[in-house]
Automatic annotation (TrEMBL):
UniProt-recorded name of the protein: ABC transporter permease
Domain ABC-2 type transporter transmembrane, residue spans: 4-205
This protein's UniProt keywords: Membrane, Transmembrane, Transmembrane helix
Membrane topology listed for this record: Multi-pass membrane protein
Segments crossing the lipid bilayer: 20-41, 47-73, 94-119, 131-155, 188-208, 220-238
Any single GO CC term annotated in Swiss-Prot or TrEMBL for this entry: membrane
Pfam families for the chain: ABC2_membrane
Length: 254
């Protein structure tokens, strides 16, 4: 079993401090720019912030996971990945562990956004239904970890995964309800119910604001089922990739 603490320490040491600080600032600026745009067009910034804050938290966490997945290509170039597949340890567990570490590395960005919210509005972000929020957070982190575990092995087929990572870091959160469906026109929000990602991302925003598009228990229940399916899919992809690399000696991007 891979040590989560060890992987976290290794990942933290590999980060460039200046790059990390820039990321924190950029994430905070995204929130400020959007709120200024809403205020410019006559919207109520405090009301808008209540709905969009947790969407930006979703983006911050998933972005960190996505770029952590893209960074696996550096292991391939350095030859470290070859030692991983030669190890008797479970390759899928390793990928899951490193994805969880990437989620943990997003905590400073989340803390910066909470601090910014407090500075702007003199209060902490809304958390209307704490129990549902904890369940929704577990569903989101687990499902996002499974998605980026599979994405890691997709990125290995690309010489430069930067463009694909950029597309993925926005596409998944947006198609899952990063922008709260309850704040959208009903005819638009209705279509999100057909997206499986809606049930693993949007509940985080729903539980924080207390405003749900459907029944909370059923929504969370579907989220658990979809998360289990994503875990099975990531396991299938990891085992298939491992067999291919052991048979051919190549990851695909060499």
């Amino acid at each position: 079993m891979f040590s989560l603490a060890r992987e976290f320490w290794l990942a933290w040491r590999s980060r460039r401090l200046l790059y990390y600080i820039i990321n924190l600032v950029v994430n905070a600026l995204w929130v400020i720019v959007l709120l200024l745009a809403i205020a410019w067009y006559g919207g109520e910034a405090a009301v808008a912030a209540r709905f969009i804050f947790w969407g930006f938290v979703v983006l911050a966490i998933f972005s960190q996971l996505t770029w952590g997945a893209a960074g696996f290509n550096n292991y391939i170039k350095s030859g470290v990945a070859d030692y991983l597949i030669a190890s008797p340890a479970d390759f899928h567990k390793y990928l899951i562990t490193t994805s969880l570490v990437s989620a943990a590395l997003a905590l400073p960005a989340v803390a910066a956004q909470i601090a910014l919210y407090y500075i702007l509005f003199g209060d902490l972000p809304p958390l209307a239904q704490p129990l549902y929020f904890i369940i929704a957070l577990f569903i989101f982190i687990t499902s996002a970890t499974c998605i980026t575990t599979a994405a890691t092995l997709f990125f290995t087929r690309l010489r430069n995964p930067g463009l694909a990572a950029n597309i993925l870091q926005w596409t998944i959160p947006l198609s899952g309800g990063m922008i709260p469906p309850t704040a959208m026109p009903p005819e638009v929000a209705h279509w999100l119910l057909y997206s499986p990602l809606h049930y693993v991302i949007a509940p985080l925003i729903y539980s924080a604001t207390g405003s749900w598009l459907g029944d909370p228990v059923k929504t969370l229940g579907l989220g658990v089922v979809i998360t289990a399916c994503l875990y099975a899919f990531s396991l299938y992809i990891a085992r298939g990739a491992l067999r291919r690399v052991r048979a051919t000696g190549k990851w695909g991007s060499e």
